[in-house]
Structure formats: C-alpha cells, structure tokens
Specification:
This is Lipoprotein. 9% of the residues lie in helices and 50% in strands. With 122 residues, it is mainly β. It has a four-stranded antiparallel sheet with strand order 4-3-6-7, with no helix packed on it. Strand 3 and strand 4 (69-78) form a beta hairpin.
Length: 122
C-alpha cells in the first residue's frame, strides 16, 4: 500500500501544475512596423511607405534635411496598414529623411554621401 502512495506521489510530480495548459495566442506587439524607401526621381525624392502594423491611427512627422539644415517638415496621417507617398525637393549633396511617430523616430533614410567635417575647424 505504501508503494502505491509513493507511486502516486511520483506520478503527480510529472503533471503540469499550471492552468490553463494552452496559454493561447500571444498579443501582437504594440509597436509600429513600417517599410520605407526613398526613390530619387529627377529633381524630387519620393517616399514610398508601406505600413504593416500600426497600434492606433496618428500623424507621422517627416523631417527633410540637407546636410544638417532642416529644409522641410510634413505630416502624414496614418489611418492603418496601407501604402502612403510623399515628395520632397532634391538638390545636390547629402539628404536625410527622419520619420517620427508619437515623438519617437521610427526610420531614417539617406540619399547621397555625407560630407566629412573640416579637420582645421575647431
């Protein structure tokens, strides 16, 4: 009889001790997921933006720089997943586009090669 209770005790140690046994599908992440490309077209740069996941609708703030100078700011309202476009003036030199959603940078795209700082400048 003692061996039977010992066997039951060992058998119960092999079972799952939490419920539910199937935790279910995990919740999707709360961060946005976007795919962005800058395509130079003649004297403009076209932003091709594909939004895959967006936690909630909101404005995407776009900042267009030439070297370190801010040239242009735009805002795109993102309703949800889909494709969006924007055009920016393109000149000579290095250009950079920064996309901010709710105050946080979610992408940076570069066109051209940044200039090196002058070694003689303090």
């Amino acid at each position: 009889m003692r061996a039977f209770f010992l066997f039951l005790l060992l058998l119960s140690a092999c079972r799952y001790t939490f419920l539910p046994l199937d935790p279910g599908k995990p919740l999707p992440p709360e961060r946005p997921f976007v795919v962005a490309r800058l395509i130079p077209v003649e004297r403009e740069a076209r932003l091709a933006l594909r939004v895959e996941r967006l936690p909630r609708p909101g404005y995407l703030h776009l900042r267009w720089y030439r070297e370190e100078t801010l040239l242009l700011e735009k805002a795109l309202f993102l309703e949800g997943p889909g494709e969006y476009q924007a055009l920016f003036p393109l000149g000579e030199g290095y250009h950079r586009l920064v996309g901010l959603l709710e105050g946080e940078a979610i992408f940076q795209l570069d066109l051209g090669t940044p200039g090196l700082p002058d070694p003689d400048e303090p």
